[in-house]
Specification:
Helix content of chain D: 40-55%
Shape of chain D: globular
CATH superfamily of the largest domain in chain D: Response regulator
Strand order of the largest sheet of chain C: 6-7-8-3-9-10
CATH topology of the largest domain in chain D: Rossmann fold
Oligomer: heteropentamer
CATH class of chain C: Alpha Beta
Number of strands of chain C: 10
Structural class of chain D: alpha/beta
Number of domains of chain C: 1
CATH superfamily of chain C: P-loop containing nucleotide triphosphate hydrolases
Helix content of chain C: 25-40%
Largest interface: B-D, 47 and 52 residues
CATH topology of chain C: Rossmann fold
CATH class of the largest domain in chain D: Alpha Beta
Shape of chain C: globular
Largest sheet of chain D: 8 strands, mixed
Distance between the termini of chain C: 30 Å
CATH architecture of chain C: 3-Layer(aba) Sandwich
Number of helices of chain D: 15
Radius of gyration of chain D: 22 Å
Distance between the termini of chain D: 59 Å
Strand content of chain C: 25-35%
Strand content of chain D: 15-25%
Chains: A mainly alpha (297), B mainly alpha (326), C alpha/beta (247), D alpha/beta (414), E alpha/beta (275)
Radius of gyration of chain C: 17 Å
Number of domains of chain D: 2
Order of helices and strands of chain C: EEEHEEHEHHHHEHEHEEHH
Order of helices and strands of chain D: HEHEHEHEHEHEHEHEHEHHEHHHEHEEEE
CATH architecture of the largest domain in chain D: 3-Layer(aba) Sandwich
Structural class of chain C: alpha/beta
Chain lengths: 297, 326, 247, 414, 275
């Protein structure tokens, strides 16, 4: 029982981060048909920038997070202006977008390393404090992350469902042709999508940094495929789906280590659980948990 | 500059470029003919390379039979990938194929008893003690370099012998691929790249055609794996990260997605680009520390692909239409 | 009867030519829509009716000609206006197919269509719409994808009305509707028109559309073929000829 | 064409011969390094590269002080991202383009064997690997060209097991956690085998992927079954994530845990967290009678920009040994280098000269004497396989303040 | 639709005397609440030429999609040459000799005009990978296919475009290519979806001429979707009228012309006055 609680908690923590990262990727896909292979590096960037501001410059932690989210937005915007906009104008196809996104990731990585070094970093927060809960050990930082990430998920969900620009984004994703003719400013929608995904990337990076306790510059990159798995699980292009898909995948990856699951998956196969989930979902329910049959995949 | 003009390293680069050329040729057949975006191609290379190592070291097979089985297994992996996920459309398939390759890599990484696991092929359990797997082909490589010695002197090396093995094959494969492209079979595939309904309505089993393309591409991935295994004489899971597939795509895009012959120049160009970034030691870059120059190298590779897609998406030889009309 | 050639036309299409890429569909079409009127464009398949509307929204290409909106003497070049800005200058559009956002709720569909002018208010307009279409109010929170064909058309119209348009462009509003619903639809169009909204529609159901129209145009092969006061055209044998290919 | 080539070759050879005459006295040693400078292991690679570069600079300074002509330089430092294929590429570049006489690195066993097989052995280049620990390297038929300053897992594994047995007895249950890479799994296997051979039980064996999102589940598995003692084979960057997770399980006890030398560094302990590490023990290779703390301060002064890692000094020693060997043999030829490496590293005895007295070491080498260079990392005493046989292992423990201490009497030698 | 009963009564049962090559029995299809085809039945006799007319959205193209297997029926049966085909793959249906064209001429833009045609020839050994090695057989087949293609191109006046990318063809030329391609497959039943829409009158005449010649050969059965009644009149010997997913009339072309139901379906019925 305590095992179940423990793994569920661990899964929720990981899952909530997956969810936040996945929703950014999913929004970008739904609006721009872009599979963002650079998403992982935005996480790393966010974590390192927050580290730099809050630890090196000793600024307020929350302030640092906000600044690094703004920076994530800024870089996304910059790339939209110099890169993605031009590619769309050139009618670049899926392959071109794939390769450019990978290229951007290759460019971002050394920049991060150049700016922040290769060392392992940690935030100024007690990573050892734990609470006992029905026999499970709940880490203080992870509890914080779970609370703040859940709050963020709520805010994101509310934003997408209630804010006008959120509705415009969903409308555009749902029917781009109609969106353009019914008065939705497409440029604004695209920009908003980039800004949101940039901000969410940084935020997820900070959360991931907190959960890991310490992080280095390959943090985000190594999680990228798990994010994709979460996106696919929750139906590609469906923002709510990505949120739920992220949570489910996190839970699934952790719970798979429990012995009731085929005797428990050895921990060195943990990433395979994510990849296999991805393949299996694509295989048997390609429309994802929120998609409907007949949706083109 | 002195170091830059020494031929030895470039011989290595050329041999490697040939291997990458064969690797990219597999992608070329899949994408350029069939429109399939396979981002897990490196998995095929890993499978065939590892099959050779395991069969030769663990079971003392002949290298050549092991290579044959390796290519067959790569083809089977391609078939498995296709049968399970080829029904998906473009980007979904691409993501699934990455996952496929990663699962393969993790299996190699974690199955010490067969693959040597994290230690690479040198740790494959081996009844005869430590041993490489290239003894047989090494005889041939030595034979070639002995023949080359009177001509090029000390430049005769294993790498140069590799060129004499890899490049003729690359030319042969490019010839085969260009023949293949002219067949009615490829014609149907080129049609499916644009539209499934037309060939289907004309009695063509589109799925079967696609699957065949994927398998043929995988065979070339497997063959590249054979040469890779030969070139490096030791394999480790870290050699088969997804970035390698990306390099293959980079060559393909340089060549122009449907230009088979462009692959020759593109492979050399890529090899040169990749190799020459190791020489960024001149002023003012010499002011940077060696780690900083190493970041610059990765950055440049990313920068070139982004610039290429932005300014010349059709590659060095392709027609712009081909990228735009996707 | 309103003179169609009046220079006071609210909306006019002048000698429009264009099509899709190198395929020319429109070979010079001229349409005048007087303020407060209903004007219908009819014609057989492939005549280029819908292409006119698509050209205005940059879905089809224009090679020559112009489209202008004359709002109280202020003349706007419609073709030079970005599609998403058309609703803010008073042009509403209901495409023929895929004219709602199925994944959004009905309420959200309406909200997305809303354009903020100085003195209008989302709630007021929406309440107004709900009053007009009580069916939509009942299902306000449901996904629009769950609506029936008739309700979808209603929603599409309502969505366009959310931007308080001066002129509404309709692309085959009756397509795919059950006969009973078609009657309802045309009655509704008359009501909308009475409330001060000018209507330009492209319609397949020629007789019924012309019956409620002030003026009608018949297109064929991308050109004006015939025109006249709406009601007078209902029984025009020439139209039957054009439709069924009798020359 | 052919005639021209012959003429050219003759001309080249004659100039070389002419130039080579005075060079007999003044050796011109060119060294290249290969380490991961980008990617996940870049931290260690950069540390080792910088240390190696500092080593070459130190020798140059010592040569000047000792008035020994010639030079010993690092001509290029290459990146292999810890992958064998890229290491081969890097080695080919160093050997063919930079014409290096010897290579320092790579970091990993895979890369080391990769370059040996494809590049360095066929081209007769001496390699001193800096952190490759696989026992396979010992067995590898390297024609005596492959050396290493890092102890083989075969040594280290036995040392840990012996230390654990001494502290907790032979028959207790031992759980082992290791990073899922070449370093972790190989040593974990040696420890497992040795422990079982000694009559002990293995509780849990958990391998974790260094790039996992979290390690709480792994930590939980590792603490299950309440073992009597843990052995953890991990690098600091990963253990910084695993450690807190272990503490949070509430079932883990640092006092019952043994680490490898990766944790033998007070800065590392501080980074991971003193409260996590306090009470833990470990084994680490040691250079006899040498002040490693001074090396760290000196290096920091010389190369302030780079952060240190536990293994840095290994790169320094490798470079210094190569330079000393070149001076000793008055030649950069591989046969001479191999011979001299043994002469200066203490394989053939001779007086001890610590790294702090490099000038003395250079003088001794220039005089062709046999001596034992006591490195900052190890006293190499290269054996027949090129392994560092002089390694002495200390058993260290971490006190409540995060300070390291060890008792020379407990040192283990192999 | 009030006159449906009387309209149906005017239908001719062509199938009674001749062999029915296609027998559509009560087929329906629905997509997410929409039912483009509802309970449609008819028979097509061999060597006949039948036109399907009806206003936009009547379900004509949906009907073709069902017959050719592109979409699967929700209910009902489709019998083609005594074989039920409603559940088999579209390419298998095509291989049986039931070939269709698409509304708006789906040509393959990045194949040459000749390649577009050659792709359609059935029984190509090169379609199989195993055939790749049968070089002689492949080469002979290609040569024949090419000759055949050139003949077809000559017929429609596209010879000079044979080796150009089909993407450069104009709308009308694409229609010609589409029709020629379908003919290359030597179908026993050919479904033509608005082959004349957007084609200029001279070309239409040419196309009709080509079809007329084929009719004389008596080796093909045609099912045509067309709007232009005059054209339909010229070539068909039977007309099926569809509206709202149902067949509302079926009969001789001349009879259809005068049918009030048909005219209503096109122009909308004259219903109550709207104020």
């Amino acid at each position: 029982m305590s095992d179940l609680i423990q793994y569920t908690f661990n899964g929720l923590v990981v899952g909530s981060i997956f969810a936040i990262a996945a929703v950014g990727i999913s929004l970008l896909y739904s609006v721009l048909r872009l599979v963002n292979f650079a998403a992982g590096d935005f996480l790393t960037l966010g974590a390192f920038l927050t580290y730099f501001l809050s630890v090196t410059l000793e600024l307020n932690f929350f302030f640092s997070i906000v600044v690094s989210m703004l920076a994530g937005m800024g870089i996304s915007w910059f790339l939209e202006l110099v890169l993605w906009r031009n590619l769309r104008r050139n009618k670049a196809g899926t392959l071109a977008l794939f390769l450019v996104a990978t290229g951007v990731a290759l460019m971002l990585r050394p920049i991060i390393q150049f700016l922040f070094g290769t060392e392992t970093r940690k935030f100024n927060i007690d990573i050892l404090k734990t609470y006992d809960f029905l026999g499970a050990r709940i880490a203080h930082t992870q509890l914080l992350v779970l609370i703040f990430a859940s709050a963020s998920i709520l805010v994101i969900a509310l934003f997408i469902s209630k804010a006008r620009i959120g509705k415009d984004m969903r409308a555009y994703a749902n029917n781009p042709g109609l969106a353009a003719v019914s008065g939705i400013n497409v440029d604004r929608v695209v920009l908003a999508t980039w800004l949101i995904s940039g901000a969410l990337g940084s935020l997820a990076g900070v959360f991931q940094g907190l959960v890991q306790g310490q992080f280095n510059n390959s943090m985000g990159e190594s999680l990228l495929l798990s994010f994709f798995a979460a996106v696919v699980l929750g139906t590609i292009g469906d923002a709510y789906g990505a949120l739920v898909g992220g949570l489910l995948l996190g839970l699934f990856m952790e719970l798979s280590q429990l012995s009731f699951f085929f005797g428990g998956v050895p921990s060195n196969y943990k990433p395979v659980v994510a990849f296999a989930t991805l393949v299996l979902v694509l295989l048997f329910k390609p429309e994802g948990i929120f998609g409907y049959r007949g949706r083109k995949v | 500059m002195d170091a830059f003009v020494q031929p030895g390293f470039w011989v290595f680069v050329l041999a490697l470029a040939g291997i990458y050329g064969i690797f990219a040729l597999g992608l070329q057949i899949q994408y350029g003919v069939g429109g399939i975006m396979n981002f897990g191609h490196v998995g095929m290379m890993a499978v065939s390379g590892y099959t050779i190592a395991v069969l030769v070291i663990k079971y003392q097979w002949s290298f050549w039979w092991a290579a044959f089985v390796g290519v067959v297994l790569a083809a089977l992996l391609g078939a498995l990938l296709g049968l399970t996920t080829l029904r998906l459309s473009g980007d979904y398939f691409a993501i699934a194929s990455i996952a496929f390759a990663e699962i393969t890599r993790y299996w190699i990484l974690n199955t010490d008893s067969v693959t040597g696991g994290t230690q690479g092929t040198l740790a494959i359990p081996n009844p005869l003690g430590f041993g490489g797997y290239t003894n047989q082909p090494d005889l041939i490589l030595t034979w070639i370099s002995d023949r080359l010695y009177p001509i090029v002197g000390d430049e005769a090396s294993r790498d140069m012998s590799m060129i004499f093995i890899v490049w003729p094959f690359l030319f042969l494969f490019i010839w085969i691929a260009s023949k293949l492209q002219q067949t009615s079979w490829a014609r149907v595939l080129r049609a499916t790249r644009e539209d499934d309904d037309v060939p289907r309505s004309l009695g063509k089993n589109v799925f079967r055609f696609r699957l065949q393309t994927l398998v043929i591409g995988s065979v070339f991935g497997g063959i590249a794996g054979v040469f890779w295994a030969l070139q490096f004489a030791l394999l480790a899971p870290e050699d088969f990260l997804r970035i390698v597939t990306f390099y293959g795509w980079m060559i393909l895009i340089l060549a122009g997605a449907t230009r088979v012959k462009g692959l020759i120049i593109a492979s050399i160009f890529f090899g040169f680009l990749y190799g020459s970034t190791r020489f960024l030691e001149f002023w003012p870059l010499s002011l940077l520390s060696s780690p900083e120059r190493a970041y610059l190298r990765v950055f440049l590779i990313g920068f070139v692909i982004v610039l290429l897609m932005l300014k010349r998406p059709q590659g060095l030889f392709g027609k712009r239409q081909e990228m735009v009309l996707e | 009867m309103i003179n169609s050639n009046s220079d006071q036309a609210l909306f006019s299409v002048n000698d429009l030519q264009g099509g899709y890429g190198d395929i020319q569909i429109l070979n010079g079409v001229t349409i005048k829509v007087p303020d407060q009127s209903i004007v219908t464009i009819v014609g057989p398949n492939g005549a280029g009716k819908s292409t006119i509307l698509k050209a205005i929204y940059k879905i089809a290409d224009v090679t020559s000609g112009s489209v202008t909106l004359n709002k109280n003497g202020v003349i706007t070049d419609v073709l030079a206006t970005k599609p998403h800005n058309l609703s803010s200058i008073g042009v509403g559009y209901v495409p023929q197919i895929e004219n709602i956002f199925p994944a959004l709720s009905i309420e959200e569909n309406l909200e997305v269509g809303f354009v903020n002018f100085e003195n209008n208010n989302l709630e007021t307009i929406r309440d107004d719409i709900y009053q007009r279409y009580p069916d939509l109010k009942i299902k306000a929170k449901d996904r629009a994808g769950t609506l029936s064909g008739g309700q979808r058309q209603m929603l599409a119209m309502a969505r366009a009305l959310m931007s308080s348009p001066r002129i509404l462009l309709l692309d085959e509003p009756s397509a795919g509707l059950a006969p009973a619903l078609v009657d309802q639809l045309f009655e509704e169009l008359v009501k909308i028109n009475k409330s001060g909204v000018t209507i330009l529609m492209v319609e397949q159901n020629a007789r019924r559309a012309l019956a409620i129209s002030d003026y009608g145009y018949v297109l064929d092969m991308g050109k004006n073929r015939h025109e006249g006061a709406g009601a007078s055209m209902v029984d025009d044998p020439e139209i039957v000829g054009i439709y069924l290919g009798k020359k | 064409m052919k005639i021209r080539k012959v003429l050219l070759a003759t001309a080249l050879t004659s100039t070389l011969v002419l130039n080579a005459l005075p060079a007999q006295a003044a050796v011109d040693m060119k060294i290249g390094t290969i380490h991961p400078l980008t990617g996940g292991n870049a931290d260690y690679g950069i540390g080792l590269t910088t240390a190696a570069e500092w080593g070459a600079e130190s020798v140059t300074k010592a040569m000047k002080a000792a008035k020994v002509a010639g030079s010993c330089k690092i001509v290029a430092s290459e990146d292999d991202q810890a992958t064998p294929a890229l290491a081969v590429e890097a080695a080919t570049k160093l050997v063919k383009s930079n014409k290096v006489n010897a290579i320092v690195g790579p970091l990993t066993s895979g890369s080391t064997l990769g370059i040996a097989q494809s590049v360095t052995v066929p081209n007769n280049i001496v390699v001193i690997a800096t952190a490759a620990s696989s026992p396979t390297i010992t067995k590898y038929a390297d024609q005596d060209l492959l050396f290493r300053t890092y102890p083989s897992d075969a040594f280290q594994g036995k040392v840990i097991v012996a230390a654990v047995q001494k502290a907790f007895g032979k028959t207790v249950t031992l759980s082992i956690g290791a990073r899922n890479d070449a370093f972790g799994t190989a040593l974990a296997n040696v420890v497992t085998n040795e422990w079982v051979k000694g009559g002990g039980d293995i509780g849990r064996k958990v391998l974790w992927n260094p790039d996992n999102a979290t390690f709480d589940s792994e930590a939980k598995l590792l603490t299950e079954g309440s073992p009597d003692v843990w052995v953890i084979v991990d690098f600091p960057d990963t253990f910084a994530k695993v450690g807190p997770a272990l503490v949070r399980t509430g079932k883990w006890d640092a006092k019952k845990t043994f680490f490898t030398e990766a944790m033998y560094d007070e800065a590392v302990i501080a980074t991971i967290g003193v409260s996590i590490m306090a009470g833990a023990k470990g084994t680490a290779a040691k250079s006899i009678g040498v002040d490693s703390a001074k090396w760290k301060t000196d290096r920091k002064a010389a190369k302030p920009s780079t952060k240190e890692t536990f293994v840095d000094a290994s790169g320094y020693d490798a470079t210094v040994l190569l330079c000393l060997a070149a001076i000793h043999g008055k030649s950069v030829k591989h046969t001479a280098l191999i011979k001299s490496l043994r002469a200066v590293s203490g394989s053939q005895g001779g007086p001890l000269i610590p790294w702090t007295k490099l000038t003395d070491a250079v003088k001794a080498a220039a005089a062709g004497k046999k001596f034992t260079y006591q490195g900052a990392w190890t006293t190499a005493k290269f054996d027949a396989a090129g392994d560092s046989s002089g390694a002495l292992f200390r058993v260290y423990s971490i006190d409540a303040a995060g300070k390291l201490s060890s008792n020379d009497a407990e040192d283990v030698r192999f | 639709m009030e006159n449906l009963a009387s309209a149906s009564s005017t239908s001719l049962d062509n199938s009674s005397s001749d062999f029915a090559i296609l027998d559509v029995r009560n087929i329906s299809v629905s997509f997410g609440g929409v039912r483009p085809v509802q309970d449609v039945s008819f028979k097509i006799s061999e060597n006949s030429f039948t036109s399907v007319i009806g206003p936009n959205g009547a379900g004509k193209t949906s009907l073709f999609n069902l017959i050719s297997g592109m979409n699967k029926v929700s209910a009902g049966e489709i019998i083609f040459r005594q074989q039920a085909i409603q559940a088999i793959h579209p390419h298998k249906i095509a291989q049986k000799g039931l070939i269709r064209t698409f509304q708006g001429a789906k040509i393959i833009k990045r194949l040459t005009v000749a390649e577009n045609l050659m792709m359609a020839v059935q029984g190509n050994p090169g379609d199989n990978l195993s055939g790749f090695l049968r070089i002689r057989a492949r080469r002979d087949f290609e040569a024949q296919a090419r000759a055949e293609a050139m003949r077809r191109l000559d017929q429609v006046g596209l010879t000079k475009f044979a080796d150009e990318y089909a993407g450069i063809l104009s709308g009308g030329q694409r229609k010609l290519l589409d029709l020629s391609r379908a003919l290359m497959a030597k179908p026993s039943l050919l479904l033509l979806d608005e082959p004349f829409a957007g084609v200029n009158p001279t070309l239409v005449e040419k196309l009709i001429m080509v079809l007329g010649e084929l009719r004389k050969e008596k080796s093909m059965t045609f099912l045509l979707i067309e709007h232009d009644l005059e054209t339909v009149m010229n070539i068909s010997d039977r007309v099926i009228v569809m509206a709202d997913g149902k067949i509302i009339a079926d009969g001789l072309p001349g009879a259809i012309y005068e049918n009030e139901v048909v005219i209503d379906a096109y122009l909308g019925s004259r219903r109550k006055e709207i104020k």
